[in-house]
Amino acid sequence: MATTQVRIGPDDHGRRMTLEQFREAEEEEGYRYELARGVLEVAEVPNDPHWQILDNLHEAFSMHRRQHPGVILRIGHGSECRVWILETVSGRNPDLAIVLHGTPNDVRGRRPPSLVVEIVSRGREAHERDYVARREEYLSSGLREYWIVDPYQRQVSVLVRQGEGEIATWAEHRFRGDQPIVSALLAGFAIRVAELWVDAEPDAEG
Asked: What is the distance between the alpha carbons of residues 142 and 63, in angstroms, rounded to a whole number?
């Protein structure tokens, strides 16, 4: 049955929606929208330090793609990729997503990402969202690897999927300082944690 399209904006933060309503909604520009367990979350576009870290990481993935052809099919940002989690009625827009060559299409005829990255924003709510809520949801979605980039603790947590179905868990590895980030999916990935913060100025709100 067709649903009536709705328009959503910042005033709709906290609104309850179905996945179908969220999929079809017309979004007011200038904000980021996610559905978390049936509740709409609206946030402002991230600040410049967040953007710089994202750009540094994107460059590292692009370099890996050039050096290891045939592994990474495409790299996407939040506006280009949405991860659907049917079990929890959630739709997440990761900061960065990696689709690998050979990934089969999902039920919607699209190739889902195998690896996603979230960059932690300031505040307890954002911390809980990336370290707790998304951790559970991405595991439920079937994602194979989830990176949590935390500029406040200056660390990267790489969560690697172990097992399938109800027995699936995350194996977590944390990297700091000059340690290279190790990925189970991208053999030979070669960026050190400290390189992510290059040119990323301290958060002016801090």
From this structure: 26
